[in-house]
Amino acid sequence: MKFQNKQSVQVLGSIKEYRIKEIPVKKLVGKRMTMSFADNKTGKLWKSFMPRRKEIPNNINQRLISMQVYPSVFFANFNPTTPFEKWAAVEVTDFNSVPKGMETFVLPEGLYIVFIYRGKASGAAPFFQPILGEWLPQSAYLLDDSPHFELLGKKYKNDSPDSEEEIWIPVRKKE
């Protein structure tokens, strides 16, 4: 996917492209777990979801969605042991056929800043730190209280250094 109206931001000494994108409401079906950064259960969540993802008949596309639903003050009072909800999901046309043991989630419409992350998922923390700690405070945007998510498309290769994914961070204009 080519970025249109892309801009650049200096992150860790290298140029990272980003775009601002408004999304409509999205319907998701998947599985969720409560976890924290200190007690990360992402691998367990995806191992329970992936063998069953083909049971979801009304996918909009083949991309997977890794979504985090953080408490409203999660980043203001960051603590790696604070629990949050993590989802492994796909976007669907409707909720008419939800497989047993899976759940639905309505992702609200909203404004997002979208970055491309290249590399191992296990090495992503240093990528986020300057975005949230430096770039965002200096930008025209504030972090919004909506779910964060990653789109895992054709270039996603699990924990490979050649992997690529889109990072979607919810924002709103500063007033």
Summarize the model shown:
The protein has helices at residues 42-49, 125-138; strands at residues 7-11, 14-23, 26-35, 64-69, 84-92, 103-107, 110-118, 141-143, 148-152, 164-173. The protein is built from two helices and ten strands; from the N terminus they run βββαββββαβββ. The chain is globular, with a radius of gyration of 16 Å.
What does this structure look like?
The protein has 175 residues and is mostly beta strands. 13% of the residues lie in helices and 41% in strands. It contains two helices and ten strands. The protein has helices at residues 42-49, 125-138; strands at residues 7-11, 14-23, 26-35, 64-69, 84-92, 103-107, 110-118, 141-143, 148-152, 164-173. Strands 1, 2, 3, 4, 5, 6, 7, 8, 9 and 10 form a ten-stranded antiparallel beta sheet that branches. β1 and β2 form a beta hairpin. The chain is globular and about 45 Å long.
Alpha-carbon distance between the termini? 32 Å
β-strand percent reads: 35-45%
Radius of gyration: 16 Å
Order of helices and strands: EEEHEEEEHEEE
Shape verdict: globular
Average pLDDT taken over every residue:
89
Structural class of the secondary structure composition?
Answer: mainly beta
In DSSP terms (H or I, runs of 4 or more residues), the helix count works out at 2
The counted number of beta strands is 10
Q: Provide the low-confidence segments as ranges.
A: 1-15
Can you summarize the main beta sheet? 10 strands, antiparallel
What portion of residues is helical? 10-25%
